[in-house]
Amino acid sequence: GIQVEQSPPDLILQEGANSTLRCNFSDSVNNLQWFHQNPWGQLINLFYIPSGTKQNGRLSATTVATERYSLLYISSSQTTDSGVYFCAALRDSNYQLIWGAGTKLIIKP
Amino acid sequence: EPEVTQTPSHQVTQMGQEVILRCVPISNHLYFYWYRQILGQKVEFLVSFYNNEISEKSEIFDDQFSVERPDGSNFTLKIRSTKLEDSAMYFCASSGDRRTDTQYFGPGTRLTVL
Predict the structure, then answer these.
(1) A91 vs A31: CA distance, rounded Å
(2) Facing B98 at nearest CB: one of A42, A95, A98
(3) Considering only CB atoms, which chain B residues are within 8 Å of A42?
(4) Contacting residues for B90 by C-beta, under 8 A, at least 6 apart
């Protein structure tokens, strides 16, 4: 089955810095999603991005499906960006989302 | 923008009690899911549901668990006899197409079993 690995596991940055989070997956996917889990535990949909590049404000994501990785970029970080960022890939055989372990991002003021 | 809603936001129960977690998926979606996240761990798939029956279930989803769509809007997860290890965040999700569509997640129910 699909394995999903995220790096780095932890990232501490100053406000205003840029960051790149990486998600590697072991098999081809039809669906890859990025989520932000806020301090209250809620999962916020960021991107549905099986391939290509998308942008939403200060966030953008790129998935290179042929090389089996996805990147999430956060520019000009704010303290409200803190939390855990997850990527999840859809297992084609049974349509389950398989989740990475997350990157814990802390933005210091 | 339509969203998935879940109630309650937090449920505290005694070990051995039954709990029902409720979800209202996005209205025109056809596929429904439950996931759980034990504190500090990965999110794990529990079950998917389509056309009034379970499509897939994981090893976690044993006989203590059941799902139901009792009417046209609600989707419920029942845990028949809760254990301490059932303490977790439970997320409901829905999608229009299980293969190519985004799965939209609710805010979660935090279940605490004492």
Answers:
(1) 8
(2) A95
(3) 107-108
(4) B6, B21, B34, B35, B36, B46, B77, B108, B109, B110, B111
- Residue A88 touches partner B, C-beta closer than 8 Å: yes
Q: Given CB atoms, is B50 within the 8 Å cutoff of chain A?
A: no
Q: In chain A, count H helices and then E strands.
A: 0, 11
Query: Which helix H or strand E contains A13, and what residues bound it?
Result: strand A10-14
Q: Identify which of A104, A83, A87 has the alpha carbon closest to the alpha carbon of residue A40.
A: A83
> Is the CB of B112 inside 8 Å of chain A's CB atoms?
no
Each residue's pLDDT, cut to its tens digit, for chain B (114 residues) gives: 779 999 999 999 999 999 999 999 999 899 999 999 999 899 999 999 998 999 999 999 999 999 999 887 899 999 999 999 999 999 999 999 877 788 999 999 999 999
Q: How far is B100 from chain A (nearest CA, A)?
A: 6
Which pairing describes strands B75-79 and B65-68: parallel, antiparallel, or unpaired?
antiparallel
> B106 to chain A nearest CA, in Å?
7
A51 touches B at CB < 8 Å: no
Query: What is the rounded distance in angstroms from the CA atom of residue A30 to the CA atom of residue A65?
Result: 9
* The one-letter amino acid at A9: P
Tokens of A64: 């290179």
Helix (H) or strand (E) holding A19: strand A19-25
Q: Which pair of structure tokens corresponds to residue B77?
A: 């997860």
Does the beta-carbon distance from A98 to B58 stay under 8 Å?
no
